[in-house]
Design goal:
This protein is mainly α and 419 residues long. The protein contains 19 helices and two strands. The chain has one domain. Helix content is 74%, strand content 1%.
């Protein structure tokens, strides 16, 4: 069903822009009253509240209903983690710190999904552009602050070294300007625009925003981000050829979704088998502490159906307590492995089902095979980056993925039919 386009007023757009930009700018800042509350989560809650007020004033039940079902679908992986973790928390008698960490990490993701839905409710398709502009504005604000202290020439010199060394050398100025998780969020939006260029390329906004997005993405240059973008774009082209974007060839889409799921499990087996150790010794590859971290965590899990897990927050709490000077990290930087250790063998597969298989199938049923392909390829970007980073628990990336998938709901009936 096509949703009527309704633009927010200019003053309302300005208000949302500043709130959303602040949400992306204040990444780790927080205030405390017994527990730490991140500014970005408070601002996301403010977006939800403001959008609810708009809903009460300008009620559009059709639009709210469509976005509501997207929120339920996209929040399902977080809900799965909470449900699977509850008996594990009790069984292992986890402390409240670990439980609070695990629960809040999932709730933060759900809050961000609601915030993206709120923006889309108010602004329709223009909400995608407002969100992207806000991300770029926050990134440029950080960069400008660094330029004032160090100068443009130093920044550009270090940026050149970063790109030429393929992220092998990161200067102090470039590192200070980076909002780590925002780089991945911008990369995901950028990949989605390129994957669906037939649609986004028609909008003049892309002519201005594409160069800015590329500059911000390469300023926070991530090798795994480049690989994820290349794989998602390649998967988009391959599935387009195999399916012809016709519903009767949906088997290829689900086959690809099963392949992604199987490859993620295969990756876990490789990590358990010592892939980081092999890469370090065979190719002298700098794993940025991941070899040591994988070795440290190795004793806490095994691969098999009899591994039940510890519950969400276990790994996060462990790494927050450990002496990190020898490792240089306070996180595992492998969310696929983290989810397996926390949820166990069966919990991990339930999560995979909700995050990849079910999501792809439902989007296909709602909007046709073309949207199903775009959904799977955007999810692939997330999963690839999560093999060496914490992107599944980066709320900016969670919001970016939700925005990309929900924005597909603003397509005309012809597109929804997969034609």
């Amino acid at each position: 069903m096509r949703m009527k386009e309704r633009r927010g007023t200019v003053p309302l757009g300005v208000i949302y822009f500043f709130i959303t930009t602040g949400m992306y700018y204040f990444n780790w800042q927080y205030f405390s009253f017994g527990i730490h509350i991140l500014y970005k989560i408070l601002l996301a809650l403010f977006i939800i509240s403001l959008s609810f007020v708009v809903f009460l004033v300008h009620t559009d039940l059709e639009r709210a209903g469509i976005l509501g079902r997207y929120v339920c679908l996209l929040s399902l992986p977080q809900i799965v983690v909470l449900i699977v973790s509850m008996p594990l928390w009790v069984l292992h008698m986890q402390g409240m710190t670990a439980i609070r960490r695990g629960a809040f990490e999932e709730l933060y993701g759900i809050i961000m999904i609601f915030a993206m839905a709120g923006i889309l409710y108010v602004f329709g398709e223009n909400g995608f552009w407002l969100n992207l502009v806000s991300m770029l504005a926050a990134n440029f604000a950080r960069i400008l602050g660094i330029l004032q202290k160090n100068g443009l020439s130093v920044y550009l010199k270090e940026l050149g070294i970063l790109i030429r060394s393929f992220a092998g050398e990161t200067g102090s100025v470039i590192a200070a300007a980076e909002i780590h998780e925002l780089t991945f969020a911008i990369g995901l939006c950028l990949s989605s625009c390129l994957m669906d260029w037939k649609r986004y390329g028609k909008d003049r906004k892309i002519l201005l925003l594409l160069p800015a997005a590329l500059f911000c993405f390469f300023s926070g240059f991530k090798r795994i981000g480049i690989l994820a973008m290349a794989l998602s774009l390649s998967a988009r082209l391959i599935l387009k050829v195999l399916t012809g974007e016709k519903d009767r060839r949906k088997g290829w889409l689900m086959f690809a979704a099963f392949c992604v799921s199987g490859l993620l499990f295969g990756y876990l087996c490789l990590v358990k088998g010592g892939i980081y150790e092999f890469l370090t010794k065979r190719f002298a590859l700098n794993t940025m502490g991941r070899r040591e971290l994988s070795r440290y965590i190795d004793a806490y899990y095994w691969i098999g159906p009899d591994y039940i897990g510890y519950g969400a927050g276990f790994v996060s709490r462990m790494f927050s307590n450990m002496a990190t000077r020898a490792y240089g990290n306070r996180a595992l930087h492998n969310d696929i492995l983290l989810l397996y250790i926390d949820l166990g063998f069966w919990g991990f597969w339930i999560w995979i089902f909700s995050a990849i298989l079910l999501r792809t199938w439902v989007i296909y049923k709602w909007q046709g095979i073309r949207s199903g392909i775009l959904c799977l390829c955007a999810t692939l970007f997330l999963m690839v980056t999560a093999t060496t980073d914490n992107t599944i628990y980066y709320v900016y990336v969670t919001g970016s993925l939700a925005m990309v998938i929900m924005n597909e709901g603003y397509k005309n009936q012809r597109d929804c039919a997969g034609l």
